[in-house]
Amino acid sequence: MVQVDSLLHAGYHNPVQRPWQIERTLTKGALMYPIFITDEADSLIPIPSMPNQYRIGINRLEGFIEPLVAKGLRAVMLFGVPNDSVKDEFGTAADDPSGPVILAIKLLKSKFPELLVSCDVCLCEYTSHGHCGHLNSDYTIDNTASVKRMAEVAVNYAKAGADNVAPSDMMDGRMRAIKQ
User: Which of 66, 172, 52 has its CA nearest to residue 111?
Assistant: First the structure.
């Protein structure tokens, strides 16, 4: 028997996600638009390997997203890609209340309340060592500390208004920790 905490029924609470539960159907409404949000507030920096995609600063986000929402955009996925944030060994800036992801969540939910906002939960862009977790003194991953930190970030994104959190870190036990 499957444990209740491993079932993925969370998609039914939001009307944007309900159609995603249907098998073998792919429409534009089933897609999420990726937003690479940076801590450079006025930036709109092209990403050369991804045509028509940008590192977007918070001051440019509303103007960038507004015409897409007008065309029917219903869901976005935020990826934090800081340039100026201070990186440390714990990824402290990942859930900074004045950091790019939390500011973007709040802006998008206030300006576009029907827009489903999901957030990538990852520390690698915020850590000085580039790994998505805490390291032991021998540079191996400290899974327990990493999972605890990932859960903190996920909860803070949810508290800021994110509809979904999407951890991409691959740490064992992170889903359980986030749910708790």
Answer: 66
